[in-house]
Every structure is written in C-alpha cells, then in structure tokens.
Amino acid sequence: MIMATAVKECQHLQPRAIFGINGKVENGVRQHPITQAAIFPLGNKIAIADFKKNTQEFVAGHTNSISCLDVSKSGKYIASGQVNHMGFRGYVIVWDYESRKEIGRHDLHKVKVQAICFTAEERFVISIGGKDDGSVIVFDMQTFTPICRQPASRAISGNALTVRPLHNNPFFFLTAGDRHLRLWSILREQKKLYVQDVQLASKSRQFYCARIDKKDEFAYLGTGTGDIVKIVLNCCDRDNVTRPGSSSGILGAFGTHNPRKPTGRDCNRYVNGVRALYVLEEGRLLIGAGDGGVELVEERTEIPLINFREYPGPTWPYLRTVKRTRVSGRISSFVRSTPEKFYICTDTNEIYMLNISTWVLKLLRTCHAKAVYFITFPKNYAAVFATAGHESIRIWSLNRKQELLRIMVYNFNCAAVRFAQDGTSIVSVWNDGIIRAFTPITGRLIYAIPNAHNKGCSALAVASTGRFIVTGGIEGQVRVWKIEPYRQDLVGVLKDHSGPITSLDINYLDTEVISACTDGSCVIWDINRMTRKQVVTSNTQFMSVLYFPTGVQILTCGSDGRIIYWMVYNGALIRELTASKKSSVNCLSMNATGDYFVSVGSDLQVKLWDYNSGDVVGVGSEHASSVISAAYSPCGKMFVTGSTDGSLIIWDVPEEYWGSPNPVDGPSYQLPKAQPKGKVVQSRVDSGTRLKPAPGENINGLLKATPKDDICCVECPPCAKKEAKAADPFAECKIVPDVRKC
C-alpha cells in the first residue's frame, strides 16, 4: 500500500532589504538617466538598486567578478567587463536595460577587462585589457560584433588604465594610464584605428581618471602624484586624429594654491593621488583624493597661465579651493544624481550624498568591505542584529534598514559575535586571540581576555545565564571561561580536535556544548564535569552545528554539501539531506520553534527547509558570491544572510512557514536547585555573583539612542599595553648597588 505524502511547494524567497556594493571598481557606480536607479557591480552580478523604494535586483551572466561597468547616455544599454583566472579570457557583455537580457558579448581580452565605455550616440563600446592583455577592442553597436583590435600602448610606455569618450563625436576616444595618454580615431569602414600621442613635454605621470568638458576642447586627468593635468585636444580630424597642423598637448599640471606660504612653496597636491574627477559648469572641478578628501576647486583665471612658466616646481598652483570635506576610504566614483547632488562611492563600500550648493554630506549606504563571518540576533529581540567582519562589529536596524553602531578593531578580523542573554553586552572573539566584550549602545570596551587562544579565536558560544562563555580556537582547543563583573577566569580546556573549531553551540539547559571541527568530528562536552560525552564523525569538514531547541538532536553541515541529523544521547545518525551536489554548505540557522531552518552555501543559494519532512520549501538566489553566514530572527518571520563580498540580505519568510510551538502548551523544564549540605555560612567577601546588574546600557535601547540616518563609530583601545621601563636602571635586574640599603 502506497501512502501519499503531501509535498510542500518550493517558493521563491523575496529579499526585504539588501546591503551590498563593490566600491573597489573604479567608476563602477552609475545612475540610470531615466529611472534614477543606481547601477553597480556586486561580485559576478550587476545590481540595479532603487534607493527611494529600497529595492534591488540583479543581472547575472558573468562567470567571475565584474571589473568595469558603463551605462549608455540614453540608458538603453549597459556594458560590463570581468576579470578571470590566469590563462582564461575575460568577457565583455552588452545588456539591454529594459529586458535585463544579454544582447552581445565577446571574449577577446585575456584575463581582465580594465575599463569600458560607450562612445557618443551609442555607436561603439570601447574596452581596454589589463596588464596581461594590453589591447583596445572596438565593439560595433549596430552589428553587435567587434570590428577592430590594436595594442593600447607603445613599448616604451605603461598600461592603459582608463578610457573616456568625447561628448559630441562618436568616432573619437581618449585612453590614459601609466605614462600613457593617447587620442584615438575609429575608421569603421576600414575597420582600423588611428592614434596620436598627447604631447606631455617633460611631464611623466600615472593617470588614474580622466574627464572631458562638454565642448570637447579640454581634458582633465587625475594623477598618482596628486596633481591635475589639463590638456587641449584640438579635435577632430578622422585621418590625423587632431586638426591638420596641430596636435593635442599639455597646458600644465595643476595643484591647489596655499596663500599662507611664499611663492615656490604655495602649491598643494592631493594625498594618495587624484582618484576621481568631475567637470562642473563655470570651469569648476569636483576632485576626490586617495585619502578620502573631496574638494570643489576653480581655476585662478585672474592670473594668466603664462606667468607660471618660471615657477620653480613642476606643479603650478593654478587651482583655488572653494570648499572641502572628507569621507572614509579612497574615492572610486563620482555620480551626478541631480545638478546639485552627487553620489560619492569609496573603496570601503560606502555611498555618500553630497549637495554641492549647501555642501552637506550624508551617508546613504554602508556594508562590510570584506566577508561577513558571523550574524547574530539578541535573545527575543528582532529589531536589531549584529554582524562580524574585517576590523569591525556592526549593529544593524531591521526596520530602518541601516547601520546603527560600528565598533572598530584595526588590522584584525572578528570571527564570531554574540549578545549576552540579558542584552547588556556584546561578546566577540578575534583572530588575534583576544576575547572582547562591549556595551551595546556606546560600544565601550567592558573587558578583554588576551591570549585566549594562541593561534587566534574562531568560534564562540554564550550561556543563557551569562555566567560563562565557551570559545574555540584555530589550534583546535575548546575553552570555558567564567565571567564575573570584575574578573574573568579560565575554568577548563577541552582537547580532542586536531583542526580549527568552526562552530560552537550550547543547549538550552547550559549543561552541554557541542563543537564542530574541520577534522571531520563533532564532540559533545559536559560543561559541569569538563569531559567528553559523545562524538560523531563523518567524511567531511564540518562547517556549522546546531542544537534542536529541545536539545535532543543536533544538526550539522559540511564541505560535502550534506545536512545531517544526529541523536544526542548515543550519536546515532538519523537522516541525511543533500543540500548541494557541487559545493559546500557553510552555515545553518534554525527558528525558535524548530520547525524550519535555513542553509547557505558556496553555490550562492539560500534554502529554507522543513525540519520534520526534510523538504526545501523556499529558495533564494540573490547573492553574488559564496554565502558563509546566516541567522534566523527570534520572531521567525525573517532571517539574514551574509556573503564573502560583504553584502547582507534580509529575507522575508512566507507566513505559512513562520512555525508554531511543538507542542503548543508544552511544559518548560528547569534544572533542580542543589540543596546545600550542612550549615550555610554567610560569605564575608562578595565575589559579585549575587550583585544585581546596574541599570546601564541594554540592546533594546539602541534604537532610541541612535538618531535616524546616523552611525556611531567607536574605535576599540589597545588591549595589551607595553610596560614602561622603570626610571631606576637597576630596577629591572633587582640589583641593590649599596649594601647598606640591602
């Protein structure tokens, strides 16, 4: 007799909000001229984000990370290029914006496409290759085929780094790079290119960015030495590139004038080079520097340029600073949203809005600059969540969809972060081997435990009482720490693993902790007796482990793409699920009732599972790189996932999968309190364990304490201070020079 089982239909999960951008791509952020949507690369996909509606969608087709991007002037087309592994070719793809479909591609570049642009009237797509390719390829938009290819630079000059088209003539464009500045002419009928080198006199520069004015008369180029080179183009003749009898040449290398210094030393250059430029009306320039400086400058037209020929330095103080401000990180893109408002993107994956008339700077979007290693929610509080990443812990608001608090520890990675059960502290472990705890509103350091693990910490679990925490290290040890208000002690060291600890979880009774390791074993430890109770092994590298809410089963995932159910009391295998056939499953997270759990992996997919039936009930595929962290909200209505490119996605769970307590009115079990034997003697010294916590900071007050559109950024002080040498030269070796003083 065959029993029919109702198979739940697999739904497509919808993201509520997406935090993600790749700010390291030069000129990678664009704005659509009609829909005003922001277009930028994110991993191997192109993201199209509407900041007003807080929606985002992706265009997929590249096989590796996108290295350059451009949008046509009418907004009809998008062109993108990618970087590939050594020995493979990099694709150039042209997309139709309305249908989000690919309409043409070529793979003529080797390894990397350095820069790409549309010429005027959307006639051609110009792409230049990286240092392994070094060629210019012209792609015809009428036939959607490449028509010519030519080496970008001469043998005596460096590689081309950027390309810029002219505004009014579709057959001309400019390339610039390392000691490289050339003007090109396209002959479509003959399928060839004419080129002319721009005369730079004795100047030798590395050009990072280029802009051309609306009349195609002058070009401005940002250099690595921190000055701005202005050239006259003298365009345009098809065969000679420039007008007959003339050539394009340099007018000067300009810096900003400092009136407080004498002549000859009154020229300032930009720190770490000029990385972004925008030519405004009335001869003004918006300049972005490598150190995050943003300046609005204008030319000193009251002084003739010929007067600077006798200036002693190679850079002339021909620019006057009108306004200046500063952002975090190196500036990679300027995007003009309205005549007065600019988007500023930095390599720290942040987008700012700058109003050049009022000169008001506002932070719009933030996300992690590198991988998100861990995500966690407070106990029974779904309004905020915390993420751990490179150099920082960040607290985010679900409703505001913004970052609230950032705690910085420079040069180190946060491996895991947890909230204390009462919400009074944020406990974190770092790869420098230090356990740090912070206040949840101001981000102040409460305590730090140095040298917790000699090779760095990799996992963390916090007990429900808050009296102890368990940490795992890269060397394979599990350590239990007793936490008191004014003292933190090591209780025990549990040794059984031979590889890095990847995950830790404590059961709801605080009697057991389970550790997952890359050596293919998961060990259940008795915390009270500090002994091993059970071990389960499998032919995989365990990446994550979870207790079922009742503590009778455990759930594991690993590099073989399988999700396995285990029994706690005897370590028996109950069930195996195949989550991915090709890649690893990196993280698991379960809702509070135990009805559903979520799995994420290197196949870029997020899957929602029914725990009892083992069926996939929801799939999301909005990530652009490997997903390595996930966390279910306490309310069960949403969950958050993080990937290696630093992006975060908040997913909505369909209402039928919110879950219900099982059983609904089940009794809650508590450990019996041990009765003391003999006479109870009042302790003369209170160790602090009976002290009630002072009415201080709590995580539920963070939203009220943080104004809207504001971020509190806190730098953690150093935990290991160097001991100052004693003033007495004999104090270190403890020598008493005078016997009478002995």
From TrEMBL:
Keywords: Cell projection, Cilium, Cytoplasm, Flagellum, Repeat, WD repeat. The keyword Secreted does not apply. WD repeats lie at residues 450-484, 494-535, 578-619, 620-653. The keyword S-adenosyl-L-methionine does not apply. PROSITE patterns: WD_REPEATS_1, WD_REPEATS_2, WD_REPEATS_REGION. Pfam families: WD40. One of its GO terms (cellular component) is motile cilium. Transmembrane segments: none annotated. It comes from the Eukaryota. InterPro entries: WD40/YVTN_repeat-like_dom_sf (IPR015943), WD40_repeat_CS (IPR019775), WD40_repeat_dom_sf (IPR036322), WD40_rpt (IPR001680), WD_repeat_EMAP (IPR050630). Its main location: other. It is found in: Cell projection, Cilium, Flagellum; Cytoplasm. Microtubule inner protein (MIP) part of the dynein-decorated doublet microtubules (DMTs) in cilia axoneme. Important for proper ciliary and flagellar beating. May act in cooperation with CFAP45 and axonemal dynein subunit DNAH11. May play a role in cell growth and/or survival. Microtubule inner protein component of sperm flagellar doublet microtubules. Interacts with BRCA2. Interacts with the CCT chaperonin complex. Interacts with HSP70. Interacts with AK8. Interacts with CFAP45. Interacts with DNAI1. Interacts with IQDC. Belongs to the CFAP52 family. This is Cilia- and flagella-associated protein 52. The gene is Dvir\GJ12258.
